[in-house]
Amino acid sequence: MSSPVVTRFAPSPTGYLHIGGARTALFNWLYARGRGGKFLLRIEDTDRARSTPEATAAILQGMAWLGLDHDGEIISQFENAGRHAEVAQDLLARGKAYKCFASQDEITAFREEAKAEGRSTLYRSPWRDAAPESHPDAPYVIRIKAPLTGQTVIRDRVQGDVTIRNDQLDDMVLLRSDGTPVYMLAVVVDDHDMGVTHVIRGDDHLNNAARQMMIYEAMGWEVPVWAHIPLIHGSDGKKLSKRHGALGAQEYQVMGYPAAGMRNYLARLGWSHGDDEFFTDAQAQEWFDLDGIRKSPAQFDLKKLENICGQHIAAADDAALRRECEEYLQAAGLPALDAAQSSALEKALYCLKDRAKTLPELLDKAHFALTSRPVECDEKAAKNLDTVSRGILAELTPHLQNVNWDKETLEDVLNGFAAAKDTKFGKLAGPLRAALAGRAVTPSVFDMMLVLGRDESLARLEDAAI
């Protein structure tokens, strides 16, 4: 029986959750969740100068917004430094690593000389096979003994088999002269100790895999399944950068994209399941597999993102969508809805959500339900409330006082009134929109009246008729 799948996301807390990192986290989350496995989170905070609590908080907030829940406690790589050093000492004791007393100046001089002579600058330490009795009383690093002949094959589920000649691998430093572990060692030890079975990460780490495999093999540990995914490019085909728009996951929340739409779009960014574009979380978890990831970089396209998000808004449960609108307002630092507005918004969503691609667009369409009397008209709407129109509204209002407040009845009454005036309902629509919403472009007049209810609708018409 195969062991359960364990994936991990391991960001460095030196900034926000980059959208590329968010996609990496999503792929790991989908792969684990779809197989009943575990998705773990490790903060790679060994760079103490650049790691900040604020960056860690931003990463966690970005993941929380995207709904990427992790299993177990968050692992701090820095706090495991003692364990990393212990492994380096173990390799040293077993002859798989050695003490290197070469100074940085000596290494630099070697590389400059090799470069000048056109030789390989790969440093070969003279201390690799030195007898212990020859060791000076001086600072040293611990280096792993890289294989000198043959080749290393990275069996990658996305990139295929990648072969590297072992004479291209250096005796990598494991422990610095101050006793602190290097990143390469820390990653391997943490992944092993966390039981990670599948390492799904950006293909900029592909070359690291060969060096990390040296540690796995020297320790006799099982090498995880590698899956190095291509980077994300902008629409111009160049590596995604600030000029392509927002980069942090939270920025997309502040811009008003729904989390479900963002998950769907990011899942499709470099991965496919047939021709399916729109899918639910459950479908994504069921379908996602490493074989569906493409080798070439994916292109980030805001128009496609908006299209997918519009479909998710349309398909969303009204109560959940209302909550997400409120979370958006909070994230964007905008005024919160009061209890009455929150209730009105949820009631109105059925007639709004089919045509909005972002949450700000949705809230703008909901203006009629969120505003209160007296309703202020914008410039276009005000033009529809001239003296004649106000008189028509004053004449119309009594016809609505005692009718059933349902769509069919309201349509009959308003169309009948228009016919009696020898006009079409379209002529009434402009003044009605202005009176009910203060806007020239709104949802259907009948939908607005149903959402607002009899008393509020009549009160707004009476205000406009004065």
CATH architectural designation of the domain at 79-229: 3-Layer(aba) Sandwich
Structural class: mainly alpha
Instruction: Give, in spatial order, the strands making up the sheet with the most strands.
Output: 1-2-3
Which percent bin holds the helix content? Answer: 40-55%
Mean pLDDT: 94
Fraction of residues in β-strands: 5-15%
Q: What separation lies between the terminal Cα atoms?
A: 79 Å
CATH class of the domain at 79-229: Alpha Beta
The CATH topology of the domain at 79-229: Rossmann fold
| Unreliable parts | none
**Biggest sheet, open or closed, and with what strands and sense?**
3 strands, parallel
Number of helical elements:
19
Q: Rg to the nearest angstrom?
A: 32 Å
Task: Provide the CATH superfamily of the domain at 79-229.
Answer: HUPs
Q: Label the overall shape.
A: elongated
**How many DSSP-defined strands?**
12
GO molecular function: glutamate-tRNA ligase activity
EC number: 6.1.1.17
Function: Catalyzes the attachment of glutamate to tRNA(Glu) in a two-step reaction: glutamate is first activated by ATP to form Glu-AMP and then transferred to the acceptor end of tRNA(Glu).
Keywords: Aminoacyl-tRNA synthetase, ATP-binding, Cytoplasm, Ligase, Nucleotide-binding, Protein biosynthesis
Mind explaining what this structure looks like?
With 466 residues, the chain is mainly alpha-helical. Among the domains are: 79-229, Rossmann fold, CATH 3.40.50.620; 379-465, Arc Repressor Mutant, subunit A (Orthogonal Bundle). 46% of the residues lie in helices and 11% in strands. It contains 19 helices and 12 strands. The protein has helices at residues 19-33, 53-66, 81-93, 104-116, 183-193, 206-219, 249-254, 259-268, 281-287, 302-315, 318-331, 339-348, 359-365, 367-370, 379-382, 387-396, 407-420, 425-437, 445-465; strands spanning 6-9, 38-43, 75-76, 97-100, 141-144, 151-156, 160-165, 173-175, 198-202, 225-229, 232-233, 298-299. It has a 3-stranded parallel sheet with strand order 1-2-3. It has a 3-stranded antiparallel sheet with strand order 4-5-8. α11 (318-331) crosses α12 (339-348). The radius of gyration is 32 Å and the shape is elongated. 36% of the residues are buried.
